[in-house]
Amino acid sequence: MNLIADLIEANLEILVRRFVEETRGWESSQGLKASEIITTLPEYLRTVALICRHGPTPERLETRKRLEEVHINLRLRVGATQEDATDEYTLLGRLIPRLWDDAGPEHKPAASDLQCLFQQLEDAMDHVVVLFSGYSMEDRQREKRFLRQLDALAPQALGAHEDAQARLQPLIDTVIRALEAAGAELFLVERGSTMMVAIADPVRDVPHAGRRRADARGPSFLGRVARSEEPLVLAQAHGLTDAEREGLGNEGWSTLLGLRLWPHGELMGVLCVGFAEARPVPPQTKRFMETLVEYLSGILDRALLMGKLHEAHEQLATSETRYRLAAQAASDSVWDWDLTTQEVTWSGGVRDLLGFTPEETGPTADWWVGRIHPEDRERVEHGIHAAIHGTQARWQDEYRFLNRRGDAVRVLDTGVITRDAQGRGVRMVGAMQDITARRKTEAGRELLLQEAQTARVQANTELSRLNTLLHQAPVALGILRGPTHIVELANARILELWGRTLQQVLHRPLLEALPEVRGQGIQKLLDGVLTTGEPYVGNEVRVRLARAPGGMLEDAYFNFVYQPLLGAECSIEGILIVATDVTDGVRARQRTEALAATLHASEERLRLALAAVDMGSWDVNPLTGEASWDPRFRAMLGLPAEGELSLAEAMQFVHEEDRAKVEQAMAEANMPGGTGEYACEFRVRPPTGDGAKVRWLSGRGQVHFRPDGRPARFVGTALDVTERKREEEAARQRAEFERYLVGIVSHDLRNPLNAITLGTASLLRRDELNERATKAVLRIQASAERAVRMIRDLLDFTQARLGGGIPVQCQDLDLATVVRQVMEEVQMNFPERVLQTSMPGHEARGCWDPDRMAQVLTNLLGNALKYSPEGTPVMVRVQGTEREVLLEVHNAGDPIPPDMLCRLFQPMQRGAPGMDLTTRSVGLGLYIVQHIVQAHGGTIAVSSSKEAGTTFTVKLPRDGARQATRG
Fold first, then answer.
1. Which CATH architecture has domain 158-310?
2. What residue stretches are annotated with the PAS domain (predicted)?
């Protein structure tokens, strides 16, 4: 006997009539006759009844599939959608259960029969998807397999100078295999242009495959693909004009299929797939192509972003190195030699030193070698190449160099070598200084010593004094930062000129460090430079200084140059000061112009490099906490757009849970003797009321140390990595969910299944059912029911966690009827307990799923009975208002602890320890209850206290579920 089959066969006409009545109002059925709506429905229902009664034999399944195919094809002809067709089988899944609702609970089929019925309807809906889209389960599995292969082959980073052909070709080969094509070509847009360049080409013998280009705005097939949102097919690729074929490399393909790469709403490139034979491209192939290209776009987007990030870090390191070395050199002519490309650039000081303009110096080192005096050339060239190919970090030599007039100028040339991880020299920055006058002086001094032997002591004393002055001759460099003119120093020469110690000057306002110069016009000069942005040059400026502690003021004469330092958007970030004692004879003006130009160019390149990858930057004084932040970093951190802000104030914008981690990373970077490297990922919380969400930043920085080991400067960059962190969190949650299921299946389901096995074995060992065998059967039944409940909870949990919510089948329902039925069933299982109901005369009707409502009440009642004393009643109250119905379940007993109350509806949560193990569950009951209530548009809350007991309150809108279904 099968109740489902009996009910279907006995009520076949009723089912067909109700089906027509329900679908008559659908848009897809407008204008159709009743026979066109019914089609094969009667015969289909009879076949389903036979399957439910006698089982799914191959013949019956084939008949059912044939009837479904006829019905679905008729729906295709009248313009119905895939959703329209699946809705019809969903409607049958609601109409058939109404048959036993009308007949009474005694006609309700068993769970196994229901499973058989719903399996037939689910298979029918899968059949709809296949016939409408041509995308079967096998297609989806195949798609997943190739996506995993793309993931495994994805490059972590892709730089602009890397061999993209070698890195991306395995990905393109995977796409070719996935689409069973003859080949494919990938074109990526060049940065800052509309040209697309061929990156990967499976045809290895095509010459210069990586140099082919196509205009994304042109008339070619590739250009049309770049402007199309949908895949484009070219059925006949032979005989194309040159304009149409622009960029394509293989002329043997007959059919072309192209789709653009479009991450973040911007064109990244085009993927073109070729087929050797002329053929139509089915919809499922286009859909598969869209999935593959979308996945490939994400892979390339991440790889290119990481490549840009690496390049930006290298550019920053290069700019910082040049800035530091130029400041250290502080010489007349600065040169920069790229040892990988052999290109050499010279600063403007080469004009004053040798008479050449930078444009006349030549792009390589050959020009420099050719101007070395012939007698010195071999020695100098051998020495500098030995330094480059060796291990030393510094090279220095003195030689004669031919200036523009052909005169030999004696120069002192010094260079610092930068090496890569393998120790190879990749860059050399240096300075050339004119020492002709110095050498003439030294030569004259030697002559004086030979002619005046009687004055040896006096001459030696004079020589010592002159040497001291000569070693002090290089320019003194200071930097004033910000409107308060905080002083930083690049060398100690300025301390000697001012008569101050490092502690008296460093990180103090200028007029605090030199109070005696107040009123001498220096402040006015500095303000003028900050206001106008124009440099100031003063020769033989008189300054009254006290050069000794407590000493008298004395006149000192200096050559001063105040050069403004420009930052982002041409704002003035500080002033570069070059001061020399006029007795030194150093040409401060020329040296300062060369140095200032170098510093400005370096800072400009630094700013452009940051803007290229949308990164922010900071510059912090670790000793004082004073800092400057560029506009991009201020926006990332949520800092005010303008105004001074110290490091301590900025740290308040870092998420409080990450603040200690950031401070620890900075403390380690500031440790003397360390590498000075800083790396930390942290969250930032915008100001209260901003409305923005928490963001993740990835910071990288470098601390620069002074000669005494103290940190002098902390510079770094930040990149917004919020999206990456969100993806990592989603992956973590999925992994956690999988662990949950593994633990549940391996533990909670093992005991009931063992009980079933042991009970069955005990029953089979006896010839007839005696008392003991009867008890074994009862144990089997109890264990099986428990296993079914667990499996049901697990399925609901899976649906709620991964499927977007628990599905409900709503209908007009009197909640009071459900309450009475559930109360009767629970009372039979707990005859010793007192169950009370309170249902005032208000109507409790609404649009809800009866089975799900029964599941909600059963779980809440079971929970109340489990955690309340045996002598106390459990109360169920139903109360209706105009718009909603309230369902309350109350029990006495100990209150729920506050720490448990806040996580009561989370999965895998159980009550107090020590409960009876026979009632133990998987801890999903309340979690599922909450999701069922939310699926009906309602809410659930709990209150618990020692005096009032515990009450769960469910609020259900009368038509909330109906509105959700219509939406």
1. 2-Layer Sandwich (3.30)
2. 319-391, 602-674
Residue 199 has pLDDT above 70, yes or no: yes
Which of the 8 DSSP states describes residue 388? Answer: H
Distance of alpha carbon 704 from alpha carbon 714, whole angstroms: 6
Tell me, what amino acid is at 527? D
Place of tokens 């700013």: 607
Q: Is 441 helix (H, G, I), strand (E, B) or coil?
A: helix
d(C-alpha 858, C-alpha 642), whole Å: 61
Under CATH, which architecture does the 3-133 domain have?
A: Orthogonal Bundle (1.10)
Q: Is 614 helix (H, G, I), strand (E, B) or coil?
A: coil
Q: In this structure, are residues 248 and 273 in contact, taking their beta carbons and an 8 Å threshold?
A: no
Which run of H or E residues covers position 925? helix 925-935
SS3 content of the chain, % helix, strand, coil (to 5): 50, 20, 30
How long a stretch of residues is the chain?
Answer: 967
Maximum Cα–Cα distance for the chain, whole Å? 140
Q: 605-637 pLDDT, tens per residue?
A: 445 544 544 577 788 888 777 787 877 788 887
User: Which residues are registered as beta bridge partners of 335?
Assistant: 346, 430
Interhelix angle 436-451/456-471, rounded to 10 degrees, is 170
Query: Reduced to 3 states, what is the DSSP secondary structure of residue 818?
Result: helix
| pLDDT (average), residues 425-453 | 64
* Same fold for the pair 158-310 and 614-720: yes
Please check whether residue 476 is in contact with residue 494, taking contact to mean a CB–CB distance below 8 angstroms: yes
Q: Which fold has domain 805-966?
A: Heat Shock Protein 90 (3.30.565)
CATH code assigned to 727-799? 1.10.287.130
- What's the CA gap between 952 and 842, in Å, rounded? 20
> How far apart (Å, rounded) are the C-alpha atoms in residues 267 and 225?
11
Q: Are 954 and 938 in contact (CB under 8 A)?
A: yes
Sheet of 343-346: strand order equals 343-346, 333-338, 425-434, 408-419, 394-402
Q: Domain boundaries in the chain?
A: 3-133, 158-310, 330-434, 479-611, 614-720, 727-799, 805-966
Q: Looking at this protein, which amino acid is placed at residue 241?
A: T
Q: Which helix (H) or strand (E) holds 284?
A: helix 283-329
d(CA 812, CA 961): 10
Distance CA 384, CA 390 (A): 10
Tens of pLDDT, residues 798-830: 555 555 567 788 888 889 888 988 888 888 778
| Superfamily for domain range 479-611 | PAS domain (3.30.450.20)
Phi then psi for residue 940, to 5 deg, are: -135, 140
Contact 775, 900 (CB under 8 A): no
CB contact at 8 A, 839 and 816: yes
> How far are the Cα atoms of 251, 263, 718, 739, 912 from residue 729, in angstroms, in the given order?
47, 22, 21, 15, 30
pTM to 2 decimals? 0.31
Strands of 695-705's sheet, edge to edge?
627-629, 616-620, 711-720, 695-705, 677-684
What CATH fold (topology level) applies to the domain 614-720?
A: Beta-Lactamase (3.30.450)
> Are 413 and 397 contacting, i.e. CB atoms less than 8 angstroms apart?
yes
- Residues in CB range of 23: below 8 A, 6 or more apart: 29, 37, 88, 91
Residue 908 has pLDDT above 80, yes or no: no
Instruction: Identify whether the C-beta of residue 687 lies closer than 8 Å to the C-beta of residue 640.
Output: no
Cβ-based neighbours of 386, under 8 Å, separated by 6 or more? none
Would the pLDDT of 772 be above 70? Answer: no
Phi then psi dihedrals of residue 387, to 5 deg: -70, -40
CB atoms within 10 A of CB 948: 11
- Strand 939-945 relative to strand 949-957, pairing: antiparallel
What is the DSSP secondary-structure string of 832-862?
A: TS-EEEE--SS--EEEE-HHHHHHHHHHHHH
Quickly name the fold that domain 330-434 has.
Beta-Lactamase (3.30.450)
φ and ψ at residue 225, rounded to 5 degrees: -60, -40
